[in-house]
Amino acid sequence: MVLLHVLFEHAVGYALLALKEVEEISLLLPQVEECVLNLGKFHNIVRLVAFCPFSSSQVALENANAVSEGVVHEDLRLLLETHLPSKKKKVLLGVGDPKIGAAIQEELGYNCQTGGVIAEILRGVRLHFHNLVKGLTDLSACKAQLGLGHSYSRAKVKFNVNRVDNMIIQSISLLDQLDKDINTFSMRVREWYGYHFPELVKIINDNATYCRLAQFIGNRRELNEEKLEKLEELTMDAAKAKAILDASRSSMGMDISAIDLINIESFSSRVVSLSEYRQSLHTYLRSKMSQVAPSLSALIGEAVGARLIAHAGSLTNLAKYPASTVQILGAEKALFRALKTRGNTPKYGLIFHSTFIGRAAAKNKGRISRYLANKCSIASRIDCFSEVPTSVFGEKLREQVEERLSFYETGEIPRKNLDVMKEAMVQAEEAAAEITRKLEKQEKKRLKKEKKRLAAIALASSENSSSTLEECEETSERPKKKKKQKPQEAPQENGMEDPSVSSKPKKKKSFPKEELVSDLEETAGSGSLTKRKKSFPKEEPESDPEESGNKRVPKKKRKFSSKEEPLSSGPEEAAASKNSSSKKKKKKKLRKLSQEN
């Protein structure tokens, strides 16, 4: 009995599900379609065997890329080898993508099946997946799908910035449009200015040069010998400049007003600016083609190569085309018309604009176009899949086309393709080594510049931080100075000193030594005590906290007991009262010292 398993790929991980017998399921396809919508009936058919969740979004993106490319990832290999039976012949694995099914069958040996009942089963699994896996909600599954979709699309868009062919497609389309517009506008200038100077049209054939001359000449009657040198610069030919001067003197054109001339000159300047922009766009296209498709541009030119890429949609699509498709690319209408009418099919499409087909004889145009399409297909594949872009292969392929063209004309036998490709491989390796050397040098220079820039930023930040610290220190010092100055300026406002302010410096002052000596002689007559008493006033400011508290308490009581006293009493009375209180305290201290001795 064959066991049927189904592999389901989800944004959160791989799921392996087991089903009933293949014969029973295949016979009941209508019943399976009905029970897909019902969860209870669907559980009777499908059973979850194993679930392998992705560890991170990066791992999910890697697995999604592997599945899209038809490659068996290591996570998928581990899941299948672990949970599928060892007897591979009895296992039938259902998958949604035939590409990944072929890869599993080739690498692991399991028989794979797609379509039919498998598609219906996968539709039901997709609908009820959040109910089959424990801990998975519908909201979290939708978020995982959305995140993986964004990251997958972003990875596809960010293929290679330097080798994006979208810019080539837009540039060649704009170049073709500019050519049409410039031709239309220049014909308008020729017709408009031809009323005034009709002979100039026959002398000058180039559109841009005609517009420059119309802007420079203006009124033909003002053209003289002095402007001949400027005419030679514009026409790049002295004979044409002389012919323009002679034609202006005997012209059959009508007179024109100044306002009409101003309008013609402004329109001519616009056409000249458009032609200059067209030249700059062409140089841009050449530089992009040398980066994206150097071999193709070396073989058939930048313009024709860019048109082939634009018509195919991308360089990758062009590389996938066979040589027969490249040959008639751009001649689809003629091809389908020939198939419809059973006529002759076209021999060439866009590659007709190449110089090789124009140089070939009429009977050899079909041959050389077929050979050129073959070489274009090879060149596009080399450009698409080579890691280091180089134009060596394109130059060698161009040499082969030249030899084939000379063979058709003269019969000279060209070189073999194998010998030419061996030479190209040797030169390409040398060119690739040189390019990698240049890239390494550029990377080193860039790293040095980056280091210098980071060092400069670090130095500037350190200087800024030091300057800010200095400013902070200056600002912190300024208010301290102001606080010191304020108490000195305060007593001079009214012209009189406040008793509270005047009393503060008097606290710090010590009494003269003579008074202390006299007081000591009165209390005790010993000379040893006098020496101690003389040294005592020096220690007076560093008095005990108890004594300082005794000093402050009576002062506060005096202030709060009678508020009118400091106003009525003068400064002399306040000083006398302080002296008497301080003398009493000193006498008490001296008595204590004498008792201790």
Automatic annotation (TrEMBL):
Give start and end of each Nop domain. Answer: 292-410
Q: Name one Pfam family in it.
A: NOP5NT
Q: What is the lineage of its organism?
A: Eukaryota, Metazoa, Chordata, Craniata, Vertebrata
**Function statement:** Involved in the early to middle stages of 60S ribosomal subunit biogenesis. Required for the biogenesis of box C/D snoRNAs such U3, U8 and U14 snoRNAs. Part of the small subunit (SSU) processome, first precursor of the small eukaryotic ribosomal subunit. During the assembly of the SSU processome in the nucleolus, many ribosome biogenesis factors, an RNA chaperone and ribosomal proteins associate with the nascent pre-rRNA and work in concert to generate RNA folding, modifications, rearrangements and cleavage as well as targeted degradation of pre-ribosomal RNA by the RNA exosome.
Q: Name one GO cellular component term.
A: pre-snoRNP complex
- For this protein, what is any one GO molecular function term? snoRNA binding
Q: Indicate what this protein is called per its UniProt record.
A: Nucleolar protein 56
Q: Which UniProt keywords apply?
A: Coiled coil, Nucleus, Ribosome biogenesis
| Compositionally biased tracts (Low complexity) | 488-503
- Coiled-coil annotated residue ranges, if any: 418-457
Enumerate the subcellular locations listed in this protein's record, separating them with semicolons.
Answer: Nucleus, Nucleolus
Q: What are the BP-aspect GO terms?
A: ribosomal small subunit biogenesis
- What subunit structure does UniProt give? Part of a large pre-ribosomal ribonucleoprotein (RNP) complex, that consists of at least 62 ribosomal proteins, 45 nonribosomal proteins and both pre-rRNA and mature rRNA species. Within this complex directly interacts with TCOF1 in an RNA-independent manner. Core component of box C/D small nucleolar ribonucleoprotein (snoRNP) particles; the core proteins SNU13, NOP56, NOP58 and FBL or FBLL1 assemble stepwise onto the snoRNA. Interacts with NOP1 and NOP58. Interacts with NUFIP1, RUVBL1 and RUVBL2; RUVBL1:RUVBL2 seem to bridge the association of NOP56 with NUFIP1.
Compositional bias of type Basic residues: which residue ranges?
581-597
Return the annotated region ranges for Disordered. 458-597
Similarity section = Belongs to the NOP5/NOP56 family.
* Record organism: Phocoena sinus (Vaquita)
